[in-house]
Amino acid sequence: MKRWQAVVEFILLAAVWGGSFLFMRVAASEFGPVWLIELRLALASAVLVPLVVRQGKWQVGLALWRPLLVVGVLNSALPFVLLAYATLTLPAGLTSILNATAPLFGTAIALIWLRERYSLVQCAGLAIGFLGVVVLLGWQPPTGAGGFGLAMVAGLGAACCYAIAAPYVRHHLAEVPSLVIAAGSIAGASLVLLPLLPFTIPKAMPSPQSLVAVVALALLSTALAYLLYFRLIAHLGSTRALTVGYLIPLFAMVWGVLGLGETVTAAMGLGCGLVLLGTAIANRPLPPQPAPPI
User: pTM here?
Assistant: First the structure.
């Protein structure tokens, strides 16, 4: 892959992933979080699963259905529904910033729960990032916006789900092809949500605008996004590909302004800056340890 091509695909990935918050903001109120995410997962599965079958890797997915189902719940079903619920109240840009705290929660979990070693600089980055969360919690919602607190908790809860899912994947699915993980976990997540559908049926037929948003959410922000992501991992490496997360909130805020006329407040800008700065510092690699004396 040529350098300019990698840059274009990197920006495109950030744009389509950032667009997911706009699409959820448009469709969540009419479909409801559960139906919206079920359609997102089912349509994306219809694209990704045949690719796994064509590559002859479907037997790997069947053999690992249990861990893939766990990943589907932690990395797709639960966080997607929580984010869709958050977009019922919060602007697309703010929801994306809350989602961007996932690496911070991952660092905190590794530090406190997994007892991994972190430097003082990394701990300072963690503190800066969570200071950004505090700034966001002080953001004032529009007059009459109910459920603001629950929406904020839902957004942060989704980030926590991603943070828990990441070490689980590293521990249980480290040698599994990324496409198998994506297709298997998304298909599993779709099955998990099926029993909830009869209890969350939309009250009215969704508008054409919401239907288009659902299709775009599934095909662009899920299926295409995963394919681009795995392609970038193959050519740039996982570490560089993961930095796409720094651009997603920026695109989400731009799409929110252009598509929905949302306003980017000073608190959102400052909070976003602190979260991204803290994440960058907290995820800096540690210097190599000196070799023990012989």
Answer: 0.87
